[in-house]
Amino acid sequence: MSKLHLISQPMTAEQLQASIARYIAAEDPLLFIGDAVVVLLKHPHRDLLLTLDNSIYALTADLKSRGLADKIPDLIHSCHDDKMVELTLTSSQVISW
After folding, report:
1. What is the C-alpha separation between 12 and 92, in angstroms, rounded?
2. Domain 3-96 carries which CATH code?
3. What is residue 15's three-state secondary structure?
4. pTM above 0.90, yes or no
5. Which of 28, 43, 47, 69 has the fewest CB atoms within 10 Å distance of its CB?
6. What is the residue extent of each domain of the chain?
7. What pLDDT sits at residue 46?
């Protein structure tokens, strides 16, 4: 069963790459919330994320509050709280970083 990675803190591209290599399996969804949604626009971060086969989500409210709702790449899914709850309930574990 998959593990949901709940990413709430911005990080460097190197930190993100190291965390992905070490902790994330191919079936694990990633959900960016809070200040972490800003990394979805940064080139090294975005390019790295777009090479993954994982499902990648960003919380809609956090994107809107930062004026980013219409700026994220199509492969990153904007989601509401109900999808966040669904991801939490269908994952075997939630890992926050």
Report:
1. 27
2. 3.40.1260.10
3. helix
4. yes
5. 43
6. 3-96
7. 87
